[in-house]
Write a structure and sequence with these properties.
It is a single chain. By secondary structure, this protein is mainly beta. Helix content is 6%, strand content 45%. It contains one helix and nine strands. A five-stranded antiparallel sheet has the order 2-8-4-5-6, with no helix packed on it. A four-stranded antiparallel sheet has the order 1-9-3-7. The radius of gyration is 18 Å and the shape is elongated.
Length: 166
Amino acid sequence: MAKSDTFFIRASVDPALGVYDENTIDLGSFVNALSKDVLRIWSVECRYPQPSLNATGAAALVTETWQLTTQPQTGIVPLTNRSLIASGQLTGAWNTGAVSGPESTTQEADIGPQDWKEGYLVAVEQLYFGGLRSAPFAPNAFEIVLECTSETMTTAAAMALALSQQ
């Protein structure tokens, strides 16, 4: 397989409170299975929305979840979904009366190409970056950066990969 220098693809999604939303990432200039061109994702980095004030003064537990998939989705999918490339979640907890920000936060990168030795090979022409916010966070957008390379496969291998990701 021929390899290129790495390059970066950036995207964002700004879901409404409590509603799953996603944006399409067009890969048409990098991926064409009939021409044997595929994309290898080496790493995915996500910036989460920043926690806003807990204006209610009541104890709260909020989650902010994102995912990158090869097919459009209507909600957050499990790790067993074959279209899932990468996902993560940020959880923030406020105690009663905390108004300056969360008292504790945890971040999970459930799955990601950087966890695999050879990255993640993509042969579809669009990816879908989605998010779900469970509480007001500001700024509201999730943002990702994908580190990628372009590669060439045999036509049969590229088509088989593309079909498996649909």
